[in-house]
């Protein structure tokens, strides 16, 4: 992969339409510093030095990452009819993401994750999620690629999966899925499944002593998908293709500040690359590079095309 090839792929991706379906969340980050331990309990005292910052989280972060590569990004899902839901929809709208298919449900609580950061380290995360939004009938816009971000919070049901399978069958769209083993779903017509190592083993109920090679091959069959990309943290990623040898992509991260949303960046970059005409190995290399960049940033972040292309400078 070269910088020039990367730019060519994303020049094509910029003309494509993307739809993200899944569990929307609102991420809040509070930055501070720690100078002592609380006399009340063995926990650090964080002195807040910056006001809270808000970012799209969960499936909304996938949409935010895709928006770096195309102006035609739409979001489908459910949020609560509350202040957090309004804030999240406002953020997405400001980013130019189409939220016409995001339903605000009365009585539901928008999921909010608050991370308190001190000295580049996450001290604690506070999750607020009361009554979950119920799955509503899926109304989607046409797309060249659909990304499903399943956090097992209720947005993705078998009915939703079946509807998406029908859509891609008719339109020939790419279907990329970031699954949750907590939400067993039967998928049809998937292009790529992207679990992390833990999720890959849990999806099969497999013991972790089992070779990863066997797990990847079995996931290809169980999900009836063309590709499986397993993210391995500091060990990079491993790509499995039907009828071909697996491919390892060593990690490209230079320094890790925050792993929040790295999986969202990976599935977004992989899907955009495939939509732009990249081959499976090229798309995996791009996803790996994007993840390596985003973990070097604080907070839920996105990767720009320039950052991504520059990461391949000097490569052949």
Summarize the structure in words:
The protein is of the alpha/beta class. The protein has a single domain (3-26, 56-112, 131-310), classed as UDP-N-acetylmuramoyl-L-alanine:D-glutamate ligase. Helix content is 32%, strand content 28%. It contains nine helices and 14 strands. The protein has helices at residues 3-13, 59-67, 83-94, 158-171, 197-204, 212-222, 262-275, 280-294, 305-310; strands at 18-22, 24-37, 44-48, 53-58, 73-80, 98-105, 111-118, 121-128, 145-149, 174-178, 192-193, 227-231, 237-241, 247-249. It has a nine-stranded mixed β-sheet with strand order 6-5-1-9-10-11-12-13-14, with helices on both faces. Strands 2, 3, 4, 7 and 8 form a five-stranded mixed β-sheet that branches. α4 links the parallel β9 (145-149) and β10. The longest helix has 15 residues, at 280-294. The mean pLDDT is 90.
């Amino acid at each position: 992969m070269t910088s020039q090839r990367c730019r060519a792929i994303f020049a094509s991706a910029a003309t494509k339409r993307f739809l993200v379906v899944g569990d929307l969340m609102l991420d809040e980050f509070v930055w501070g510093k720690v100078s002592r331990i609380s006399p009340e309990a063995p926990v650090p005292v964080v002195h807040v030095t910056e006001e809270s910052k808000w970012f799209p989280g969960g499936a909304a972060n996938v949409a935010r990452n895709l928006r770096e590569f195309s102006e035609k990004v739409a979001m489908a899902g459910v949020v609560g009819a509350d202040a957090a839901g309004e804030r999240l929809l406002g953020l997405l709208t400001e980013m130019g993401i189409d939220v016409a298919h995001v339903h605000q449900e009365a009585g539901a609580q928008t999921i909010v994750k608050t991370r308190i950061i001190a000295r580049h380290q996450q001290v604690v995360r506070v999750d607020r999620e009361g009554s979950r939004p119920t799955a509503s009938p899926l109304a989607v816009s046409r797309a060249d690629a659909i990304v499903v971000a399943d956090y097992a919070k209720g947005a993705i049901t078998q009915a939703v999966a079946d509807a998406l399978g029908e859509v891609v069958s008719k339109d020939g769209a790419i279907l990329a899925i970031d699954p949750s083993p907590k939400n067993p779903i039967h998928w049809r017509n998937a292009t790529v499944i992207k679990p992390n190592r833990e999720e890959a083993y849990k999806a099969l109920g497999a013991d972790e002593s089992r070779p990863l090679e066997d797990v990847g091959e079995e996931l290809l069959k169980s999900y009836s998908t063309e590709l499986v990309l397993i993210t391995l943290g500091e060990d990079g990623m491993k790509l499995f293709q039907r009828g071909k040898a697996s491919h390892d992509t060593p990690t490209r991260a230079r320094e890790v500040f925050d792993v929040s949303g790295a999986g969202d960046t990976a599935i977004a970059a992989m899907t955009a690359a495939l939509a732009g005409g990249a081959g499976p190995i090229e798309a995996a290399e791009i996803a790996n590079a994007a993840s390596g960049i985003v973990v070097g940033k604080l907070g839920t972040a996105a990767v720009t095309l320039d950052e991504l292309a520059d990461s391949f400078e000097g490569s052949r």
